[in-house]
Specification:
The structure is a homodimer. Chain A contains nine helices and three strands. By secondary structure, chain A is mainly α. The first copy, chain A, has two domains: 63 residues, Arc Repressor Mutant, subunit A (Orthogonal Bundle); 144 residues, GntR ligand-binding domain-like (Four Helix Bundle (Hemerythrin (Met), subunit A)). Chain A has a three-stranded antiparallel β-sheet. In chain A, a hairpin with a 3-residue loop joins strand 2 and strand 3. Chain A is globular and about 55 Å long. Chain A starts with 7 loop residues before the first helix and ends in a 12-residue tail after the last helix. The interface between A and B is medium-sized, with 31 and 31 residues. The structure holds a DNA duplex.
Chain lengths: 230, 230
DNA sequence: GGCCAATACTGTGCATGCAATTTCGTGAAT
DNA sequence: ATTCACGAAATTGCATGCACAGTATTGGCC
């Protein structure tokens, strides 16, 4: 078919990860090796290796002799993921304030400005994409791939649970305002302020999420951990 | 024979990891699947699964179709690991200052005091062990297993390269003094000071390491990345 | 004599098969 | 009716074997 440069194991790991992240495989789902092997047209061997890799990243849970399931995240664990992500994001902002090159700063400012347009037009899809790009800039701005990778990994991991964050009216403008504080601090080279502003921003996102969970809890029948309909 | 509760794959992963961390398997060593299988008396299958797990943690490097090697860490990458670890440790100290329970604070103070004794007696082995325990207290003090696990993992990963850190004369006392600043800030609930003090402490450790590397570089024949003889 | 190409070989990627354990279904006893 | 025990099916853990990519070696050519 195509480039077979990467092994089946790697392809499987990434495809299964995608299926989990986009909600096709819901948390708690059993990951039957035979089923996955049949589904992707391979034998169980690469499936097993892919599962072990995913288990190490925390995306799935591997229970010896009892099979694998998509990671169950309790409300408490999710809050800890959010807190950890917030701290890492704040650290990235701090280092970005200290380490970004002039070019990086210019691009950051430009992206931020363009997001203002999206807010004005209430373009949620564009804003969501730009938001991801903005945060990615802070990761890259650390000039520290280790930290960047850890933070991005954590963001991916909480991704399935923050899908609807920009749905609430006015949240786009609020998010943009918070970003403004972070961007100004970073561009101004104020590491402490950048840290504080980002921490504030992420904690607000967390609060918004918790409200979402709370409302979902009040409406039984819709699983709070399924962010996307099937 | 022995408790077979954990699978061979897990046992292998942990044994190979130990071998890497204690220097038996030097960075750059080829990890031949047949050899490892024979060495541990299993087939290649669990070896492969263990290798994939280790690759995800960053301990080894898995090059498709070209075999696995113990992770090569260049001087630059090592510095990034140190910086990332420092940031995470500082974050742990910050959260500890905010979240530690009275009991945890008492134990932290007690451990710190007992380390003063070890410094006075110049007991390097005891101090090294206590140092690990002290840092572990900060991880636990965050009350955030996600962050704690990430930080501990990073510390493990740089472990092989900081083995001789307490060798230099006077470093024990210096380390203890730095710890004092962190401990006081945490016990006093001053999150910002705790963060700053820990960051300072870790950056000094990093400097000490870089000096070590520099001196090792000047003495060719002794590999700077082999901390322990085979 | 050095460089490049063809070949043999080593080692990884993956499929398949078997054994052991877990789990599910059935039945009987309390 | 509920619970426990037993047995069957399903599923994981691991071993083995084969095919292909990568590597080393040898021979030929410039």
């Amino acid at each position: 078919m195509s480039d077979d440069r990467q092994t089946r194991t790697e392809k499987l790991a990434s495809e299964i990860a995608d299926a989990i992240l986009d909600g096709t495989l819901a948390p708690g789902s059993r990951l039957d090796e035979h089923m996955l092997a049949a589904r992707y047209g391979t034998s169980r061997t690469p499936v097993r290796e892919a599962l072990r890799q995913l288990a190490t990243t925390g995306l799935i849970e591997l229970r010896p002799r009892r099979g694998a399931i998509v990671a169950q995240v309790t409300s408490d664990e999710l809050e800890m993921l959010f807190v950890a992500m917030g701290e890492l994001e704040a650290t990235c902002a701090r280092l970005s304030a200290m380490s970004m090159t002039p070019i990086e700063r210019r691009r950051l400012g430009a992206l931020y400005d363009s997001m203002g347009e999206m807010v004005a037009q209430d373009d949620v899809p564009a804003y969501t994409a730009a938001n991801t790009a903005l945060h990615a800039m802070f990761y890259a701005g650390t000039h520290n791939p280790v930290l960047a990778e850890m933070t991005a990994g954590l963001r991916r991991r909480v991704g399935p649970f923050r899908r609807a964050q920009f749905r609430a009216p006015g949240r786009l403008a609020l998010s943009h305002a918070e970003h403004g504080a972070v961007v100004r601090a970073v561009l101004g080279g104020d590491a402490t302020a950048a840290h504080a502003a980002m921490l504030h921003h992420v904690s607000l996102v967390e609060d918004a999420f918790e409200q979402l969970v709370a409302t979902a809890m009040e409406a039984p029948g819709s699983s709070p951990h399924r962010a996307k309909a099937g």
